[in-house]
Write a structure and sequence with these properties.
Elements (H helix, E strand, L loop, with lengths): L1 H21 L5 E5 L9 H10 L2 E6 L4 H7 L5 E6 L4 H6 L1 H19 L2 E7 L13 H17 L7 E3 L1 E3 L3 E2 L9 E2 L4 H13 L4 E4 L2 H7 L17 E3 L2 E3 L2 H15 L7 E6 L11 H17 L12 E3 L53 E4 L10 H11 L16 H15 L13 E4 L28 H4 L5 H20 L1
Parallel strand pairs: 1-2, 1-13, 2-3, 3-4, 4-5, 6-9, 9-12, 12-13
Antiparallel strand pairs: 7-8, 10-11, 14-15
Helix pairs in contact: 2-3, 5-6, 6-7, 11-12, 11-14
């Protein structure tokens, strides 16, 4: 009887575990960026995570609303330190102690946040930074580790450094010849040795989308998991997708400095949906579904068959994120900024994505170009410049979701996104008598172009204006180019 009872318990436990895996409860992790004018409230975002089976999340900074929302949620957290803090933390261990006290210890003890990792910097050795953070990353890592030990968290919370895949290379293109970049090899060796000594993982960000962007000759199909591109043959191994090849190039680089068994976390991987011709719903759905399928199957790479944690990038779109790499940077979310679903994903066992619940919006009204206004009005250029400097016009980029609008449509989109970003203030729809407010949705029919209405921050009990609204980020280069594109379109229209 006892054995039969034990067997039934084991069978029941196995069934529960299997169902949990099938429903995507185990193993899903994602990045939650908060660079947005209208953030999804912390409690709603955390419910969104849990409803979709995410039990691990990475934050790029110690955002108070996000961390409070994660308290007692059962979700494991990696909290990041922005690169602009590395110098102060590297030069003064007391700065590290204070940062840990304020952003780790207090949230663990007071809010019950399950913080497991501190990410020291974010891709600090990126080639485009031209060595700006090379000398401060390692000492900052050491000081944060010392601060965690002083706080009694040395075993509970591990340090890591999320790095971009450009820290290693293969001269021949095959993964087995992977090695760290010569200019940072000494720093990388120190960091890897330090992580190993403290039982901490190596964190790498891999972006097949960016591989496609960087090289016009890159085989597009090789970016996907079910692509038809010719495989890359490396000895007895054939690589059919760039993620496997890139990851194993890192493994080879680690082997060459004596740390081939180093635990690795994929800190970021995903595909954007707008802001570039390759950034669209179809490609993002295809890539992320393939990625989710691998996670559900617990599939590794040829050199590392054992699966690793993979943090999908990202949870939500971010409308004030820097567009330096490209306009697509604001559109990596598998959900829209408000937690609505962009495209379907099967999370395993037929479980679909679940949208955010309890989101409240501003009134159903839009700011558009007045029907009486003319595209030849000399004030139009200035009005467009104002709107797209202080609000997100990246969806108007060539090849993007709203890239095919006519001149009036461009102006209407720009006016509306500014109007919504400024919380529908009446004076935010005053563009030199060129604009008017309408209660009819101007979003084009049969199109992926959407004229947004923002979240109502007041109804979600925000008591202060977000800093991103009080002092909007100016996105100069890409927005200036966008305004010039508008003007070219308008002048072209006039000449016809």
């Amino acid at each position: 009887m006892g054995f039969q009872y034990f067997s039934k318990c084991v069978l029941l436990a196995f069934c529960i575990l299997s169902q949990g895996l099938a429903n995507g409860v185990f193993g899903f992790a994602c990045n939650w960026g908060t660079r947005t004018t209208h953030p999804l409230p912390g409690n709603i975002a955390v419910k969104l995570l849990k409803d979709n089976g995410f039990n691990k999340v990475k934050l790029f900074e110690a955002d108070p609303a996000a961390l409070k929302g994660l308290g007692k949620s059962g979700i494991q957290v990696m909290v990041g330190i922005p690169n602009d803090l590395l110098a102060s933390i590297a030069s003064n261990v007391n700065a590290a102690v204070q940062w840990v006290s304020q952003n780790v210890s207090s949230y663990i003890s007071k809010s019950g946040v399950d913080i497991r990792y501190v990410a020291v910097g974010n891709e600090p050795f990126l080639s485009s930074y031209k060595g700006q953070f090379v000398q401060t990353t390692y000492p900052a890592l050491q000081n944060i580790q010392a601060a965690l030990i002083k706080a009694g968290l040395g075993r509970q919370v591990k340090v890591t450094v999320p790095l971009n895949a450009d820290v290693y290379q293969s001269d021949s293109g095959v993964p087995s010849e992977g090695k760290f970049r010569p200019d940072i090899e000494d720093q990388m060796t120190k960091i890897v040795k330090f992580l190993n000594q403290n039982d901490a993982p190596f964190t790498i960000n891999i972006y097949p989308f960016l591989s496609l962007q960087a090289d016009p000759n890159f085989p597009k199909e090789y970016a996907f998991f079910n692509g038809s591109a010719a495989p890359v043959v490396d000895g007895s191994i054939s690589y059919t997708n760039v993620l496997d090849a890139n990851f194993d190039t890192l493994v080879s680089a680690l082997e060459k400095i004596g740390y081939g068994s180093m635990p690795i976390i994929v800190g970021e991987v995903g595909w954007p949906t707008d802001g570039d011709p390759n950034a669209n719903i179809k490609n993002a759905q295809r890539f992320n579904q393939g990625l989710v399928d691998r996670i559900v199957k617990r599939q590794g790479t040829p050199k590392r068959p054992t699966p690793t944690d993979i943090y999908i990038f990202g949870l939500l779109d971010e409308d004030v994120k820097s567009t330096d790499p490209g306009n697509f940077e604001r559109h990596w979310g598998i959900f829209n900024y408000d937690g609505t679903i962009k495209y379907p994903l099967n999370l395993g066992g037929g479980k679909p994505l679940v949208a955010a619940k309890g989101v409240r919006y501003l009134q159903k009204q839009w700011c558009i170009m007045s029907p009486q206004a003319s595209i030849t009005d000399p004030n139009l250029a200035q009005s467009l410049s104002k709107a797209c400097t202080y609000a997100d016009c990246t969806s108007l980029s060539p090849g993007s979701s709203c890239g095919n609008l006519d001149a009036k449509g461009n102006a209407s989109y720009a006016f509306n996104i500014y109007f919504q970003t400024m919380n529908q203030r009446r004076d935010a729809c005053q563009f030199n008598n060129l604009s008017t407010i309408t209660n009819i949705d101007p979003s084009p029919a049969q199109s992926g172009c959407q004229f947004k209405i923002m979240i109502d921050l007041g109804r979600h009990e925000y008591r202060s204006t977000p800093s991103s609204l009080a002092a909007p980020t100016k996105v100069l280069d890409s927005m200036v180019m966008l305004v010039f594109s508008f003007m070219f379109f308008i002048l072209s229209s006039l000449s016809m």
